[in-house]
Amino acid sequence: MKRSTGALACIAALLATTVAWAASLEPVKPEDAGFSSERLGRIGQVFKQLIGQDKFPGAVLLVARNGRLVYSEAFGLQDRATGKPMGKDAIFRIYSMTKPLVTVAAMTLMEEGKLELTDPISKYLPQFANVQVSVPKADPYGKITYTLVPADRPPTVQDLMRHTAGLAYGEITGNAQVKEAYTKAGVFKPDMDYNARDLTPDEEVENLSKAPLVHQPGTAWEYSLAVDVLGRVVEKASGMPLQDYLAEHVLKPLDMKDTGFYVPKDQLARLAEPLPNDPETGKPNKVLDVSVPPKNASGGAGGVSTATDYMRFAQMLLNGGELDGARVLSPTTVKLMTSDSLGPDIPGVVEPGMLLLGVKGYTFGLGFGVRKSDGLAGVPGSAGEYMWAGAAGTYFWVDPKLRLVGVMMTQFPGPSRPYYRKLFKQLVYAAVTDAD
What we know:
Helix content is about 30%, strand content about 15%. With about 425 residues, the chain is α+β, with helices and mostly antiparallel strands. The strands form four sheets. Strands 3-2-1-14-13-12-11-10 form an eight-stranded antiparallel sheet, sandwiched between helices. The chain has a two-stranded antiparallel sheet with strand order 4-7. A hairpin with a 5-residue loop joins β12 and β13 (about 395-400). The radius of gyration is 22 Å and the shape is globular. The protein starts with a helix and ends in a 6-residue tail after the last helix. About 50% of the residues are buried.
């Protein structure tokens, strides 16, 4: 029986992709993966120049395509104080890049039938059974007052994953009543951003449940402490501490050996540190102390990881939930997580892309910002691409159309970090020579 040339070509392409993914992020010549070595070299030229100008201390940058590593470089210093060069195995505070890890952990519970996305969070955390919403009102002179009203419906697990539960961040929200309540609850500290790690899990739930919501559940996208609460749901649904459940069901299967919620004492020499002061504002750079175990594993901002570990996580997602024979999620679950979960009816207080990159064109899925189209956003990419980033400068994206993953690790918590994320990304896309 003869097969057509077209059919043979399709089979060959499928086998090539399968072999590539089986390679498990082995290095390959860029030209063999549709990249220009010369153009990829521009990344190092640009970032070395920026580091030389004291814009940030150093970085580890990785790019993979079809599961093969085409770019892997470390630049600058891991710690300016000691003069230690940046190593590819440096450990970084990943802040909000913890959120995709914990959301994936929660989705494994969904796949096991231990929770449903439509479950009210009060099923697992009864303290959230009777939440109220803070409603601002301006008088004729512009003075804002706040009224508390009952929630129209309970916030759900899906709301936590897509930041529509009505929760907020004290660091971001404009609602003064909620900000004050978060300060009282101990989940917002004006002297250290995104540090909700010094409460026990029970204390965090009890205190946060007493604060009003900033929106009616399901009506607005506002970046928030939702994934910290999702971590508490994971604990109740699994019967395990978040750090243990994440390790057993995500980190160990993916061989992510250096990812967790603190850095062990014998590994502290690998921890990357920011410059003492932000070069643009002159203000001190304050970052979390990750040298000791926190009182709670903060699902929203408490993680540490390496570029290699996070590349393995991202490649698992691109592969449809599997890496090196370890299946973490079903391909259908990954598709759900990386699809638009907001639609036209849920507006964003700030668009996800504006928050992370300073560009329009992104909606939100379950744990990820999702690109709406090839155009619109002021940075190269493809429709369906998904991404997220961290407050101390880290960033990653997955482009299913081009089968491409980029990971950027640096400790740069200043306001210019969106600029460097976009810069890295546009240099990567400029090096692509085969867009098929």
